[in-house]
Design brief:
The structure is a homodimer. Chain A is an all-alpha fold. Chain A folds into two domains: about 55 residues, Orthogonal Bundle (Arc Repressor Mutant, subunit A), CATH 1.10.10; about 130 residues. In chain A, about 65% of the residues lie in helices and about 0% in strands. Chain A is elongated and about 55 Å long. The structure holds a DNA duplex.
DNA sequence: CCGTAAGTTGACTATCGGTCCACTTTACGG
DNA sequence: CCGTAAAGTGGACCGATAGTCAACTTACGG
């Protein structure tokens, strides 16, 4: 899928990601400059851009990393996250897991969701969806459809995920209200998928 | 509440707001620079800042304007938006109206929801909520609580509003999927507030 | 070893939000 | 009317920051 990196490149890549995580624990993504990241990783700014292309690319990649465990859990792990449990249980487990991942990553997802297209050219495309978002959306959508094929599973999945894009909710999570959100989502799902 | 503006100031204020709306119809808020706004309104950049304080202030004020009609409708208008109808009907009518307002205003709300605190100082407060958001949140929260005092109305209201913060959903709205979203929200509310 | 492709770097550019202050316009009391 | 002070105006300027680039360094297969 991708050429292996040279030893120094791999080292720097890891250092940059680690430094970004580090900075992320103490600041909102919007306040972290690429220069800060480069400095914290002990590399030149150019290196950061060479590897990740852009600010969004870096955040994007970091998110990918953070989401990997969950991805594995739902595809090859045991129920209720993995296959085997009924859709409703899987959905509830998944939403709980997503809330947990997002809570641990503050505004990362939110920052990702907000990117402007490139140059000044009249590129007006809605911007490609983030792979992690796509994966999560597909999973929710599939589970909902399985149990309630009469609903608009696609839109419903977007609505559920919107939750973790919302700044007020992110703030609530930061205050430790993760379980409140969890219970609320549970109530919503239960309303839609009884039993 | 506020001193009346001088004639020229009022004229320019209106021109700036109108120019911003104009630009907003053809671009995402993030790509509109204050310089563009100033140019489009035929005023100096300084004037824009003098009147609105900041980029956020301008967007903020514009949103306020856009939300005014809805505000009036729910406080003094006829049912089902205004008082008189049962909570469920009022909530459904309100959500439909919100979707409609947001659909007509693209990412305005989304752009508002995303602001970083000020200077470099370690000001880490969660940032004050937008008045329009607060008003909408309070309204939803009250209606939910009236019918289902057992639920976490506060969090639930955040979840409903998160919907209009989400970029994928905003894109869907732009594609004319407003009624799909509307139906989906209706399903969610119905699941929670049956009858 | 050596050639070379990959990687590194920080000075440089472009852009943009926001500030500042000298200048202009308006409102209004006399 | 007119003089004046308060309000408003505008654009040069500043600091920050995402992203570029061309010269330089390094890893590594043969």
């Amino acid at each position: 899928m991708s050429e292996p990196l040279r030893a120094d490149a791999a080292r720097n890549r890891a250092a940059i990601l680690r430094a970004t995580e580090e900075l992320l624990t103490s600041s909102h993504p919007r306040q972290i400059s690429m220069e800060q990241v480069a400095a914290a990783a002990n590399v030149g700014k150019g290196t950061v851009f060479h590897r990740f292309g852009s600010r969004d690319g870096l955040l994007h990649e970091l998110m990918r990393e953070r989401a990997r465990d969950l991805e594995i859990a739902i595809t090859t792990g045991p129920p209720p996250l993995g296959e085997g449990a009924p859709p409703r249980a899987r959905l509830l487990a998944f939403l709980t897991a997503v809330v947990e991942v997002v809570a641990r990553n503050k505004g990362l997802l939110a920052a990702l969701g907000t990117g402007a297209p490139g140059a000044g050219a009249p590129k007006q495309e809605p911007r490609e969806e983030h792979p992690v978002y796509r994966s999560w959306h597909g999973h929710i959508s599939r589970l909902v459809h399985e149990r309630r094929p009469d609903l608009d599973a696609d839109m419903l999945a977007h609505v559920f995920l919107a939750t973790v894009h919302s700044e007020p909710i992110l703030n609530a999570l930061e205050r430790g209200d993760g379980d409140r959100l969890d219970r609320t989502l549970r109530d919503l799902v239960t309303g839609l998928m009884p039993e």
